[in-house]
Amino acid sequence: MKSMGFGCKWRRWILSCLSSASVSILVNGSPTNEFTLGRGVRQGDPLSPFLFILVAEGLNILTKEAIDRGANALSLQNLLKCFELASGLKINFQKSCLFGVGVNSDEVNIMASRMWCQVGSFPFTYLGLPIGSKMKKANDWIPVIEKFKNRLSNWIGCPLEEDWDGGLNIGSLHSKNLALLGKWWWRFKTETNALWVKVIHSIYGSNGGLDVESELPHSSYLGTWRNIIIAEVDQAAAVVDRLAFDGQNLIFNWCWSRAPSRRAETELAGLSELLAHVKLDRTVPDSWAWLLSDSHRFSVKELSGIIDHAFLLSHHYFPETLRNSLVPKKLEIFVCRLILKRIPVQVELDKKGIDLHSMRCPICDDDLESIEHTFLFCSNAMDIWSRVYNWWGIGNFSNFGINEILRGNTSNVATSNFGGKIWQAIEWICVYYIWKIRNDKVFHGKTWSIPVALSEIQIKSFEWVGHRAKKKKFDWLTWLNDPRIYLTS
Questions:
Q1: Residue 116 — left, alpha, or beta (φ > 0 → left; ψ -120 to 50 → alpha)?
Q2: In the chain, how long is the greatest CA-to-CA distance?
């Protein structure tokens, strides 16, 4: 551990864990007196796998060094024996296999007999998965599929509780992961005398850097009420230090170092709402209470169920993936980001806590720059949509939603699936160019005229769609003057 850069204090902690473990033995159901272990930790100790990783890393370094020096299989065997003597981890060569890659089979057999191990062949199974096969053929996956079938066969005839619109009440890995992380957060808040909590306190400060200003040097994390703390004179002050009671209501007495930002005012409103019905009693010590269950006791199962109900049933959380073979991949990725609302318009940046000079639309300055405004309701975007709809002879652009636009559900003219894909591609290209025009204005100061924008959309759409529609030929003049026939043919 010293060679790996672990500090002296940390090494002493680990050494104490290794030397202080004690066990007792049950004799006829009665435990004997405890005795100290000669070395190592108790069976099942959570520290054991971490120590094994450190030891295995030492073996990995030794092996790489030996290979760099041109060691052969017998040299590696001697290296493993040295590792066995140093670590106490014995290698069972009789249960080991030797594989040859790019060498003669006779040479592999001779070397395996000298090492007293078996000869392995490809493909082989490791942790239940086949190794050494290209896995491109269906037959290569048969063992894996059979294992799944055998496991799932145990469910046949077993009643499963149905929930969540027909689900099997199994839950998602996402919710289980969040719930387990929440369990550690809850334990950190409630098990204040635990050793691991004290370690976290010593490294990250009295609050562990979770919900208030971290005490680490140069830390920029300021917790839940970040913008309030930034504007406060004493950034180490607690909320209770700024509260006063006028006889009927709680009031705030903030000491501002500067005028609160708009985001700080939003946080103040949320904080005031949370404390509206709170009654403070300084004679009662603070404590944490879990209010998401009737028992007021934290439960990973209950929390994961709450997360699943909140997110899995929402169509916005797992949006459908839209694909169109008539446009390049970069446009499909752009549409995916647009569905997930990961386009950096001012409103979305503001939600991520980024302080902006202005949230107005940089094109028209008529409204906040949201996704809907940028791509649908900005005067520039509406002019582009109107020109494109007239070009295709569809009529006036209506107030469709962004999801309808991306799905291509804004026109009933297309009479075939291929025609529908063409119209969807046109709308995606329009969205793409609206964003391009916006970025040119913001980052380069370039202003596009509407006729130029329409011309670029016509040229680029003909290039992209015409190149990718292998079974359909497109004529430029027809595309320019009467493209609607491609929606019905």
A1: left
A2: 96
Enumerate residues 6+ apart whose C-beta is below 8 A from 186. Answer: 288, 290, 298
Q: What interhelical angle do 173-190 and 195-204 show, nearest 10?
A: 90
Enter the DSSP assignment of 386.
H
**pLDDT at residue 167 tops 70:** no
> Could you give phi then psi for residue 306, rounded to 5 degrees?
-65, -40
Q: How far apart are CA 411 and CA 47, in angstroms?
A: 63
In whole angstroms, what is the distance from residue 277 CA to residue 275 CA? Answer: 6
**Structure confidence at residue 411 as a pLDDT band (50, 70, 90):** low
Question: Mapping DSSP to helix (H, G, I), strand (E, B) and coil, where does residue 243 land?
Answer: strand
Tokens of 387: 């020109």
Residue with tokens 């002019």: 383
CA distance linking residue 447 with residue 390, whole number of Å = 23
Strands 124-126 and 250-252: unpaired
Helix segments in 232-276, DSSP class H: 262-274
Contacts of 134 (CB under 8 A, 6+ apart): 140
CA separation for the pair 182, 292 (Å, rounded): 13
Kindly state the average pLDDT of the residues 447-462. 94
CB of 22 within 8 A of CB of 37?
yes
Chain-centroid distance of CA 403 in Å reads: 24
Residue 379 contacts residue 369 (beta carbons within 8 Å):
no
Cα separation, 284 vs 122, whole angstroms: 69
Q: What are phi and psi of 167, to 5 degrees?
A: -75, 170
Going from the C-alpha of 20 to that of each of 9, 53, 183, the distances in angstroms are 16, 21, 28
DSSP string, 97-135: EE--SSS-HHHHHHHHHHHT-EEP-SSEEETTEEESS--
**Crossing angle of helices 450-468/379-391, nearest 10°?**
50
- Contacts of 76-79 with CB under 8 Å at 24 or more apart are 77/115
Alpha helices, H only, 275-378 = 300-311, 329-339, 346-351, 371-372
Identify the DSSP state of 27. E
Q: Is the pTM of this model over 0.90?
A: no
Please, which pLDDT band fits residue 209 given cuts at 50, 70 and 90?
A: low
Question: Could you tell me the end-to-end alpha-carbon distance of the chain, in angstroms, rounded to an integer?
Answer: 72
Listed residue (396, 405, 392) closest to 480, CA to CA: 392
